[in-house]
Design a protein that fits this description.
Blueprint lengths: L11 E6 L5 E8 L4 E6 L20 E6 L18 H14 L5 E6 L1 H12 L4 E7 L6 H8 L8 H7 L11 H9 L4 H18 L6 H8 L1 H16 L9 H9 L5 E6 L8 H9 L4 E5 L9 H14 L3
Parallel strand pairs: 3-4, 3-5, 5-6, 6-7, 7-8
Antiparallel strand pairs: 1-2, 2-4
Helix pairs in contact: 1-2, 2-9, 4-6, 5-8, 6-7, 6-8
The structure holds ligand STX.
Length: 316
């Protein structure tokens, strides 16, 4: 099994204003003269953490991580104004230009795969390769499966905790009911809803339940950024023009880009059907199905496949 590269510290970190209200945390680590790779984190609203640097060989890669609008060390925290997929795509372009990068490798898991695809279909000429995990296309059926009914059949005990803040009469449409509470202006109600929403994701992300991950997703600041930003993107269908737009565009635009898809067979946050649909849309892509993994980037079989993929594309 290939494991993560050792922990490293950034050689450059800064805050980058991208609008009247938003500024982003950006960092570079690894080799200054290496081949650039940009990391798109999950959620939306999950933020980066130092582990994310470790999917790349620091001797070969110039590793660029940034916290998307409203999360991590970006400011203001959990802000939804001017926060859409297309703002984030523009932000990535601004970061690329600011760092003087012509083309880069693109890496993203879960929502990071969504954003990586949205970026790549908009700027295909800038993308040397795509390494994608836990494919998420923000189609209505995907959101329904995880937030309404589907995953609930495998995790009914955790599901009961998830829906607790929502009264019976609103449970037929949980995303709408959560959105109302997450944006109601009463901090106690917002944070209670946020914790339930975020812990649902933390509880269901691994094949074997990880109490440490649940505890992290339950923290106030993390839960608030994740729940508010995710729910905002989902009530807006990812800000895509139609259901399945991303898949249609990928098919038209991305055939020439070397693409690796890594997918846990038992992913119940972003079930494998989406990875399969993407593979069918991009027949040249390589699909690695990890037999004993769920959704998390941290599961050992997923790490193995991702690090092997980034090692392979470094030479392109
Ligand atoms: N959200 C999918 C996603 O991007 C529906 C994601 N899943 N778990 C995460 O992100 C965290 C690791 C940020 C909790």
């Amino acid at each position: 099994m290939t494991t993560l590269y050792p922990p490293i510290e950034p050689y450059h970190r800064f805050h980058f204003p991208v609008s009247d209200i938003h500024e982003l945390y950006v960092e570079e680590s690894g080799n200054k003269d290496g081949v650039p790779v940009v990391f798109f984190h999950g959620g939306p609203g999950g933020g980066t953490d130092p582990t994310h640097r470790r999917y790349f060989d620091p001797a070969r890669y110039r590793i660029i991580l940034f916290d998307q609008r409203g999360c991590g060390a970006s400011r203001p925290h959990a802000e939804l104004t001017d926060n859409t997929t297309w703002h984030l795509v523009k932000d990535a372009e601004r970061i690329r230009e600011k760092l003087g990068i012509d083309t880069w490798h693109v890496f993203g898991g879960s929502w990071g795969s969504t954003l990586a695809l949205a970026y790549a279909v908009t700027h295909p000429d800038r993308v040397k390769s795509l390494t994608l995990r836990g494919i998420f296309l923000i189609r209505r059926a995907e959101i329904q499966f995880f937030y309404q009914e589907g995953t609930s059949w495998v995790f009914p005990d955790y599901y009961d905790e998830y829906i607790k803040p929502i009264p019976l009469e609103e449970r037929h449409d949980l995303v709408t009911a959560f959105y109302k509470r997450l944006t109601c202006g009463d901090l106690a109600i917002e944070n209670e809803a946020a914790r339930a929403w975020s812990v649902w994701e933390g509880s269901t992300s691994k094949l074997i339940i990880d109490e440490g991950l649940i505890a992290r997703t339950a923290g106030d600041a993390f839960a608030r950024q994740l729940a508010r930003i995710e729910c905002h993107y989902f009530v807006n269908n990812g800000f895509f023009a139609w259901d399945g737009w991303l898949l249609d565009e990928a098919k038209k635009t991305l055939q020439g880009i070397p693409t690796t898809i890594v997918q846990g067979r038992y992913d119940l946050v972003c079930p494998m059907k989406s990875a399969w649909d993407l593979k069918r849309a991009l027949p040249g892509a390589s699909l690695v199905v990890v037999a004993d993994a769920g959704h998390s980037a941290g599961e050992s079989g997923i790490v193995d496949a991702l690090v092997k993929a980034t090692d392979r594309v470094a030479a392109l």
